[in-house]
Amino acid sequence: MKICLAPMDWVTDCAYRIICKQIFQTHWNVDDELMLWTEFMSADWYTHNPSWVIKHLLKSDFDHETIAQIFWWNTDSLIACAVDIQKKYSYSWIELNMWCPSPKIMKCAAWSGMLKDKQKTLSILKSISSQIDLPFSLKTRIWLTQDDIQEQFDFLLEASKYVHLISVHGRTYKQSHSWDVDRNFIYKLKEQLPDTLIIWNWWLSSYQDCVTKINNLDWMMPAQRAIGNPWILTPYVPTNQDVIETIFKHLDLSVACELHFKQAIQNYDHSHGLEQPTYENLQHLAKDISNNTINVDHCHAPIEFRKYLFRYINGFPNNKACKKNIPQARNYKDLKKTLSNYFDSIS
Ligand SMILES: Cc1cc2nc3c(=O)[nH]c(=O)nc-3n(C[C@H](O)[C@H](O)[C@H](O)COP(=O)(O)O)c2cc1C
After folding, report:
1. Ligand 1 touching residue 39 (CB < 6 A)
2. What is the pTM of this model?
């Protein structure tokens, strides 16, 4: 089975992708392969104000099989961005995001708003695919209401002429986050498109859940349940000690990525692209951070790290007090102290 870490804004950054791949390489099922995604990035901002969004393209040489995801509604910006990523960065695929929902998004023509004018969107897909050599994919949902599901199905059959892979989320826009999902839609789509890779992307709760639901599909893509739970990409069930070690490794790596980025953005030159970190350098930096040989009090990564932390320690004993203390920690040292005190108290 090919197992995918879903694209998630503020989650699937360079550090978390490395952690997921490390866990996968340690505990993988030998028949499986791993695929990684970046967070989404605005193609328009990339072409006009790259320094605002270029962080999303930070990638080490370790997570080589990674898809760069972009969004926007304007063909020229999308093509310019896709072509530039292909030229300057070592991504394996380019993906167009047509998934994200919200009333605000529906008003603009980007994200799932692209599905309002399907003919125009097909011409955008055709244009992008003709301009890049990398494989091209799209991520979408089964659309607005139950009434336009057939229309969306037909649209995807047409779209498959221009993309190699389609990630499908089985809820309509109206269903929001409800439990109702249309499983037949995606199995039927794969039946009709044997030569296009089709990914299941909604509410996979465990590795076993992926195995159970894969059926005739190619790849499985857990999202929310993969936040602070990289083991979902493997059959392995972690011990509390595994989780604790991963938390500290992930925290150090997040700070290391921030330090690398701060340096790289100072030297950033759009004609050459962002200087990417090597895995080896990040590992060295992370070690220095862990040994307190570099002052990282100014780094923001430990604050951002909370979103993973709350998930990592879900199910840990007496975690309520720790969850209350975490927001008081304002820097790396504070956070490590808070966590060490808590982990000592439960060991
Ligand atoms: C915090 C968060 C950020 C997300 N960011 C993105 C994104 O950048 N690009 C994207 O295509 N989907 C994004 N998604 C959607 C997920 O990739 C996935 O489609 C969705 O969560 C449904 O899967 P799930 O039911 O397993 O969570 C995001 C979801 C979450 C929870």
Report:
1. yes
2. 0.96
Q: Residue 40 Cα, ligand 1 centroid: separation in angstroms?
A: 10
Domain boundaries, the chain: 2-233, 240-346
Q: Are 40 and 10 in contact (CB under 8 A)?
A: no
The closest of 72, 192, 65, 39 to 134, measured between CA atoms, is 65
Which pLDDT band holds residue 176 (cuts at 50, 70, 90)? low
Averaged pLDDT, 271-277: 95
CA of 6 from ligand 1 middle (Å) equals: 6
- Contact assessment for residue 308 and residue 228, using Cβ atoms and an 8 Å cutoff: yes
Span from the CA of 224 to the centroid of ligand 1 (angstroms)? 7
Compute the radius of gyration of the chain from its Cα atoms. 21
pLDDT tens string 188-217 = 999 999 999 999 998 899 999 999 999 999
Task: Specify the ligand 1 atom closest to the Cα of 95.
Answer: 11
Measured from the Cα of 224, ligand 1's closest atom is: 27
Tell me the pLDDT tens digit for each residue of 119-141. 999 999 999 999 999 999 999 98
We find that the CATH architecture of domain 2-233 is Alpha-Beta Barrel (3.20)
